[in-house]
C2H2-type domain-containing protein (Linum trigynum), 741 residues
Amino acid sequence: MSSAGQSTNLIPGHSSNRKRRRVMVAPSFAPPTPASNLPQRRRVSRIDRRSRLFPLLEASSLPIPEISAEPLQFPSADPSTAPSLTPDPSILPARQPQFTRTITHGLPDYECQFCGARFWYEERLSRHRSTTPIYTMCCQKGRVRLPFLQETPPYLEQLLGINGGPMAVHFREHIRSYNAAFSFTSFGAQLDARASRTRGPYSFVICGENYHCMGSLLPVDGQRPRYSQLYVFDPHTELADRLHHFSLPDASLRPDIVSGLMKLFDVTNELVKSFRRIRSQLADPVTANMRLRIVGARDTTNRQYDLPTGSELAGLIPGDFVPDKGERDIIIDHRSEGLKRITSVNPKFDALHFPVLFPYGEDGFHVQIPYDPVHVPATLKRKYITQREYYAFRLQHRDDEGQTLMRGGKALQHYIVDAFSTVEQNRLYYLRTHQEELRAELYQGLTDAFDRGDVTGDDVGHVVLPSSYTGSPRYMKQLYLDAMAVVHHHGSPDLFITFTCNSQWPEITESFRELCGTRSELKPQIVARVFRMKLNDLEDELTRSQFFGKTVAGIKTVEFQKRGLPHVHILLWLDEKHKLNSAVDIDATITAELPDPEQDPVGYEMATKFMLHGPCGSDNPSNVCMKDGSCSKIFPKSFNSETTTDQYGYTVYRRRDTGISAPKGSAVLDNRYIVPYNRNLLVLFQAHINVELCHQGRLIKYLFKYITKGPDRSMVVAESHDQPSSSSTVTGPPPPIDEIK
């Protein structure tokens, strides 16, 4: 966990001309510290690393304890009868004077010394003080070396420009539709429409298996051409055909933009040039029955980083000839019904589907991209870069690289989701085909069959995902057992904290503003990176800085909401001397009331901005929390003069009728709508941070099952089916090879 520190932290300058500092304004009560040219950053200690924060016992041999719920003993709130309950600041650091400082990291002004990717100082590899930080997220310290993307063509630059006028605004808003109008391949995954109906930033969400398909060179008689056929069919009707297939329900594609992109790709895109040449050859009766091969292999001997020539990229082969087809080649029939699934390791996999993001038809990932021999350690056996390493390199901002991809907005979201799902599917394929090497037969024995309830043996032979695969049943089960082992050793946790990303953090809105604007959905990779830095800061505050007191154990799980913003659930165990054992202790640490705007204007502003629930109920019956006519979060709460516990062991926080309220939407909300929080933590991070007391015994199993439940449909099993041959043709979506259940 990274430290926020209580003194002013200065980030040293670096060799580039964009020297900046990360400044954290010290609270008024902190003593001044001498200036230094080195950062006062504490070393990270991850909250969920085994044997770091707490000794983790062998979970499989431990019984899950039965914990009885004992109600808290709340003393009287009358000062005359409870004089000994005055908080001791030396015991609870959270009861320090009110913070006015916030944690900020500035702009990503540091560069990778190997590839030039832009980073924040806090993203460096080593947490020790250094004026020359090293980063590995981009190129693995120079091991991965790829050709930089070319500069954006002038016409596309005009469409992607932030200040490009109404035409550019229209294009960026509907960029996925314009990309689909020129795509050579169709997208096979099912889109999750629920994500577009929720509040918050735009999110591109898919369900099920992801794949790309291509049709034949020419459409069947009587059908309109689609996708790659549009580049080969009648040029006189091409514009009308593109507008017909990709019209929008709320706004049609603009003919002037479509026409401009047609002219642009005819000049710049090597794939388009290849298909245009085929058009004239197919008109010749001698070559009418031909097929197109898009070559998957690349010559890596001498010019491994050069763009392929047109003849190397694609070629016509006789339709009745059975070619020596490489497993990574794409063969397109002359005229046929249905679609064919194309391989994700063909170099043109990305360029075929994202012509707007790759206007030159650049090569993407293929299995023959070698590591840079200068930076490869002698102990590394692998010779070629992995698919994940390729996409990690591509999704970086570099000053010397073309920015078409990074300015893709909604199309960039599509590209990232497509890349992630492709990497995951290839991992699943590897697990399915390497069961013996992975010793997966240990998971297919009698123990697993008994646990599943199998008594007939019909399911013997199924491919089972090991616990090393993130999200698999065994992965989640081991996390749950590990968590219960912590309970067995340390007892019940004390605090349950939910920390949600703020899309308006200046690190998100101001980073690369000149390229991507300020909206978080236009730069999802920046959102993830900033949240990770903030989470490191929060973890360090909770442990090294002992924000709530000495912490003896902790567990966290990070989730991504349907609307795209990540959040984390954290469980903390406090040392015995720092536990919240009385109502006074709880009120000094957790509040469910609005601060006085005159006495604490900063706290009031943060609480009204981040911690007000709703409005819901009769004020807003369509709010997302409304279920069957009532709020699923049980708001509004009742006024309560003191903190108590209810009959189920839940803490009922103090919510006095102070007369303080705040407008939100069309309603005016008071303390009954406040989500419990810690005032200083809220001001420090300027985001939604819900802090709850959770040491009541009957809540423990629910909490741990909740934080280890995984994503929707997380019970994952890969099943093997008969795989169709590479030359077979299917109608509609192809049958699945790996089935995700």
User: Anything to note?
Assistant: The CA atoms of residues 1 and 539 lie 4 Å apart. The radius of gyration is 29 Å. The mean pLDDT is 73.
